[in-house]
Design brief:
By secondary structure, the chain is mainly α. Helices cover 85% and strands 0% of the residues. It has helices at residues 3-39, 45-83. The mean pLDDT is 91.
């Protein structure tokens, strides 16, 4: 187990956290855009922005799943390797 692999495990874990945070932010903003669009007919374009965000969220779900699975597997391998009594190289 190299130091580079352990470093990448941390990077991939943080990538999953960042993608999840961006998706949560997009969900909140889409709700805000819908409220704004419903409030006034002149702001109807916000409803379309909400739809664009929903498409982005739908496209991001497979990415989030893939990155989360990769991070989990990498972290598990690092943890098992260190439990086996190996020293960092």
């Amino acid at each position: 187990m190299t130091a580079s692999y352990r470093r990448w495990a941390v990077v991939v874990t943080w990538a999953a956290v960042v993608v999840a945070a961006l998706m949560a932010f997009a969900l909140v903003m889409s709700i805000v855009f819908l409220v704004w669009a419903d409030r006034d007919t002149r702001d109807a374009a916000y409803g379309y922005l909400a739809l664009v965000l929903w498409v982005a969220i739908a496209a991001g779900v497979p990415v989030l799943i893939a990155v989360t699975i990769a991070a989990r597997n990498m972290r598990r391998r690092v943890r098992e390797w260190s439990r086996a009594g190996n020293t960092p190289s």
